[in-house]
Amino acid sequence: MLKHREILHPSLLLTAVGVLGMLAACAQQPSQLAERLPAPQGEAVNARPYAVQPEVRRQPAQALAAAAATAINPYVGGTAMLGTRTIADNCAAAPNLRVLTRMVAASNAGRALSEAGPITVFAPTDAAFARLPNGAADQLLASANRPALSKVMSYHVVQGAITLNQVRARIDAGGGIARLPTVAGAPLTATKEGAAIALTDANGSKSYVETPDIQQVNGVVHVVNGVLVPQLG
Q: Which residue numbers delimit the FAS1 domain (predicted)?
């Protein structure tokens, strides 16, 4: 078991990542998540902001910001997610995304979440980070492991603003599987499990979308119940 004060080299982190296989068993069951997903609200929100109009092709950033400003976003951690904010600002405002906010600020991914997009972020909750091996989150924040941290955070970011309905459409078009290329360079695998959307990382661990379609001026956020980890070798 990792100690909080030990410095974990990225090559050793690969061993710790193997423990993430337990997340699939620890994660909530798809049937439970299906009951919690705000599907009717999400579908209503999805219908408005990302329709492909000529204006979007000419000025994607401006059109995205204008649509987000009028979007009806779900609350995250009991806090309103304002469409006039950036992804970084809204994540910082959510009380259940504090660990993610710390990690983003310490990594190269922080700039992407603050600048003009569009991007899509799969945002793990504090509870998701708590299920990592003991001390792993602190080790990622150690200065010696910043390259590994940046890769892990970038693995949660996909270029383009992708709504949950669009993920479902990609899954259908792919015969039941959609590969979402991340900024880290490796894809996430998206599948349907009932009404839930599952994301499988490079290590075979699954996470599920809990709160979809949080629209911001530079993209969209989907809150997930697990940490997505790329191969770190």
A: 84-228
- Domain boundaries, given as residue ranges, for the chain: 10-224
Minimal CA–CA distance to 65: which of 86, 90, 47, 44?
A: 86
- State the alpha helices, DSSP H only, in the chain: 10-17, 22-26, 30-36, 39-46, 54-58, 60-69, 87-93, 98-106, 109-114, 126-130, 136-141, 146-154, 164-173
> Out of 3.60.21.10, 1.10.490.10, 1.20.272.10, 2.30.180.10, which CATH number does the structure's domain 10-224 have?
2.30.180.10
Sheet architecture: strand order including 157-159: 157-159, 119-124, 219-224, 206-216, 196-200, 187-193, 178-181
pTM: 0.74
pLDDT digits (tens, 9 = 90+) for 83-138: 888 888 899 999 999 999 999 888 876 666 666 668 999 999 999 999 988 888 88
Q: Which helix (H) or strand (E) holds 208?
A: strand 206-216
